[in-house]
Amino acid sequence: KKTFTAEFRVQQFDRSPDGFKRSLLSINNEFPAPIINVCKGDTINITVVNMLHVPISIHWHGIFQIGTLTSDGVPGVTQCAIPSNQKYHYKFQTGIQTGTYWYHSHASVQYIDGLKSALIIHDPKDPWKSHYDEEEIFMLSDWYHKQALTLQKYYLSKSSDGNEPVPDTGLINGIGQYNCAVKKCQYYNAPIKIGTTKRFRIINTSAFAVFLFTIEGHTMKVIEADGTNLNGKTTVNGIRINAGQRYSVLVKGKTKTNQNYWIRAIIDPDTMDHASFKPNVSAILSYNGKYGLPSEVQFNKNDGIILDSFHEGNNFLDQNSLQPMELNVPKKSNKTVKVEIEFYDNKNGVNLAHFNNISFVHVMGTTLLSIVQTNQPYPKSNNVISINYGDIIDIIINNHDDGEHPIHLHGHKFWIIANGNTHDGDFNEKKVVFNTRNPLKRDTVSLNPHSYAVLRFVADNPGIWIFHCHIDWHLQAGLALIFVESAQRVQKLYGTTKSLNKCTSNN
Ligand code: C2O
């Protein structure tokens, strides 16, 4: 077991990832920021140095942070945001976790400006290891030409009418295509050798966009979702991936070909309130470095099997649904938490989002951890739900909104034991059969417009965990709540003294 030690200097610089020059956020003068590759059981020890003029933080998406709550990276919850010109040490074990993860700022809207990258935990005993020759990461991202803070102000103001900022383009591993008619465009090149199989790790690091990911002329066998190994029974032509989610797929290289193929990340225009929006986000699957640009074949949505969020819940009769290798879901729960997703007009013409009628606002000047440590009452706007150690929780989410919501829980993975559409009302407990046989376990579930999901998890990780929509605009609009998982154990683990004191700033 090793320790991955690094210093991450967060800075601003100018780049043109899609041909359009703008100021963006980099780590150690790299864009995309450095990828972290570690092995199962390794420790990660990263000092983040804030060279910006605004406070920052880094969250390690999907990592449980067992006993290391202060490394979860949520300002106002688990730490004070790192002030300008200061450092913060993140140190945590990867434990038994393996697979595809990522990291990103959890402060303000900084990850939209580029403060994010991949975190891969390799497993020397990966059950799929003998099935592929090489591997590669595809970090997908929507991309805006304006600064995220400017867009956030717009989104939270009257003039947006509640419509999220529409991205200008998208990036695959930091490369996008803008206005190719005017300037020659660059494409990310993914090499593959004739006759070999490659593992592609697909990560949607977007603020907003849902991508339909395809590789022309090739199918994808899905073997991992959010760090959960799958049985590989699902082979698809396209994957619909929402913000925060990850998949690994196996792609079999052709044994004979004389051309390259387009890899596409298509942003669903229906999700954008902007029907004419159709950026071409592409990379090249390149055979032995030969053959140049692929020919122009457009993927047709109706061709073949598209993996989407309805392949992960109670559709166990559907043979295309994703099935984990390990089947270990508890058959019963002992606590139910209901979460209603709605947006409302706050009367000033500003649309705010809420879970159960409360729009989340970060505490200022302190953290929830410090509030727990000193036994103070929780701020109402933090929408705190207390749960006991050892509880088996069912979260029933009803999405009353006409938009999609990728919902993410920190500190855990959950089984999606049911999901479905609710156009004619709410989730109905009497009618829904829970899948306690082979449900998928992941950390980010996508809720379709007007749909429900039931998420089961075991409260075995004392902490203060945020549960939020991973559309970053929606998080800013308050679509979050907090699970305080065993306050007593948190006090025992992290002390009852005022160790964290006051924050000089939290965003
Ligand atoms: Cu990637 Cu709080 O999330």
Automatic annotation (TrEMBL):
PROSITE patterns linked: MULTICOPPER_OXIDASE1, MULTICOPPER_OXIDASE2
One Pfam family hit: Cu-oxidase
Keywords attached to this entry: Metal-binding, Oxidoreductase, Signal
GO molecular function: copper ion binding; oxidoreductase activity
Presence of the UniProt keyword RNA-binding in the record: no
Residues annotated as domain Plastocyanin-like: 10-125, 136-289, 370-487
Keyword presence, Oxidoreductase: yes
Family to which this protein belongs: Belongs to the multicopper oxidase family.
Name under which the protein is recorded: Laccase
Classification of source organism: Eukaryota, Metazoa, Spiralia, Gnathifera, Rotifera
